[in-house]
Amino acid sequence: MATAHGPFTTEAEARPVRDRAHAARIRHDHLLQAVAAAGVTLGAFDAEIVAWLAHTWEPTTVAVFAGLITRAHTAGKIAGGAEA
To answer: What proportions of the chain, in percent to the nearest 5, are helix, strand and coil?
Structure first.
């Protein structure tokens, strides 16, 4: 079974939100949280692209990318010997 960060086996697992009224804001927050948790500093253009992704990509695509960021960060910490 997938967690909120994956790995995702089905599209349904990657569908974090079904509320279309707040979907873009929630997708944006989801991406920003993944980026911040990974310790990544966004430049102005980076932030612009993250916002664009959140407002144009489907929720499942955003969930997969946020999960990839989170899992890559965790894997990097493990590979580096840091506690995950």
So the answer is: 60, 0, 35
What residues contact residue 68 under an 8 Å CB cut-off, 6+ apart? 6
The reported pTM is: 0.69
More confident residue, 55 or 15: 55
Q: Round to whole Å and give the CA distance between 82 and 62.
A: 27
Q: What is the pLDDT of residues 18-35, one digit of tens each?
A: 555 567 888 899 899 999
Cβ 58 vs Cβ 32: under 8 Å? no
Say how far apart CA 47 and CA 10 lie, in whole Å.
28
Per the structure block, which two tokens stand in for 77?
């910490």
